[in-house]
TrEMBL record:
Protein family per UniProt: Belongs to the methyltransferase superfamily.
Span of the signal peptide: none
Protein's name according to its UniProt entry: Malonyl-[acyl-carrier protein] O-methyltransferase
GO molecular function terms attached to this record: carboxyl-O-methyltransferase activity; malonyl-CoA methyltransferase activity
Annotated Methyltransferase domain residues: 49-140
Pfam families: Methyltransf_25
Gene3D superfamilies linked: Vaccinia Virus protein VP39 (3.40.50.150)
Catalytic activity: malonyl-[ACP] + S-adenosyl-L-methionine = malonyl-[ACP] methyl ester + S-adenosyl-L-homocysteine
Organism, as annotated: Clostridium estertheticum subsp. estertheticum
Name of the gene this protein is made from: bioC
PANTHER family: TRANS-ACONITATE 2-METHYLTRANSFERASE-RELATED
Keyword terms: Biotin biosynthesis, Methyltransferase, S-adenosyl-L-methionine, Transferase
EC annotation from Swiss-Prot or TrEMBL: 2.1.1.197
Single GO BP term: methylation
Pathways involved: Cofactor biosynthesis; biotin biosynthesis
């Protein structure tokens, strides 16, 4: 389970750093928008958009450009992110709300609900997708990106090896677990099944992105500077000895051309409501 208080703190604290370090998230945004726009309606038909996890606004800005006649409701859990985005985007067509999507109620319905690199922070993703799908207008689209199960596979391998080396019996995780594309696609189909008389089309795709750092410490710094450090409630504290061994193993075993490699497994899901 994600500790939402810690999540708010981490992202608020690092809101001013986020754009400098969120290279993969920005690439995911570009892929997400292309995926959303494939075979979709004329932009003038889109009146209301809900963006979840608006962060510093790089997706919000793209939505403003793509749908200049639409109203956008941009939500983020972190007060620091809302302050940051308000300093960058001055547009009467956008309303900003600071809140936890999983606890919020909405009175409006939407033609597009979109989210980039945020769904991994939900504790009840099935219920959340159910709620969001219910907010779609006929022929509406719910489109989101998140991270898949192979994300940070190098770090996960390091944790596993050091745990074995130190004969640690209890589980020690490097972060939260993620879905495969098939698992998440199935979850989306189950969450939207029989909700309305509409038919539902669930589409998914995946791709891998890689970042390279001078060393493992720089990799850890990059994670921290985006606010994406571990916010698990049940995360067991690891000793300094454990972390030092993880860093050493990472530097020695996951290096390419004098840089250490970090894998990002990016998932993209699109749920379209099709009126029968």
């Amino acid at each position: 389970m994600i500790d939402k208080k810690q999540l708010k703190l981490h992202f608020s604290k690092n809101a001013s750093n986020y754009d400098e370090y969120a290279h993969v998230q920005k690439d995911m945004k570009n892929s997400l928008v292309k995926f959303m726009m494939q075979n979709n309606k004329n932009n003038t038909e889109v009146k209301n958009i809900l963006e979840i996890g608006c962060g510093t606004g790089y997706l919000t800005s793209t939505l403003i450009d793509l749908f200049p006649h639409s109203h956008i409701t941009a939500v983020d859990i972190a007060p620091g992110m809302i302050t940051e985005i308000k300093s960058k985007i001055k547009n009467d067509s956008v309303d900003f709300i600071c809140g936890d999507l999983e606890e919020m109620n909405f009175n409006n319905t939407y033609d597009i609900i979109i989210s980039n690199a945020t769904f991994q922070w939900f504790n009840h993703i099935h219920a959340t997708i159910e709620k969001l799908y219910a907010l779609l207008n006929p022929k509406g689209i719910l489109c989101f990106s998140t991270f898949g199960k192979h994300t940070f596979c190098e770090l996960n391998e390091c944790f596993k090896k050091v745990r074995e080396e130190l004969s640690i019996k209890e589980s020690v995780y490097s972060g939260q677990s993620f879905y495969s594309l098939n698992e998440l696609s199935t979850l989306c189909k189950e969450a939207t099944k029989n909700q309305r008389i509409d038919d539902v089309l669930v589409e998914g795709k995946e791709k891998f992105e890689y970042e390279y750092f001078n060393n493992c410490n720089d990799f850890f710094t990059s994670i921290k500077k985006t606010g994406a450090n571990n916010s698990n409630k049940d995360n067991k504290c690891t000793s300094l000895t454990f972390i030092k061994k993880v860093i050493k193993y990472y530097n020695e075993n996951f290096s390419e051309n004098n840089k250490v490699k970090a894998t990002y497994h990016c998932l993209f899901l699109k749920i379209t409501s099709i009126t029968l």
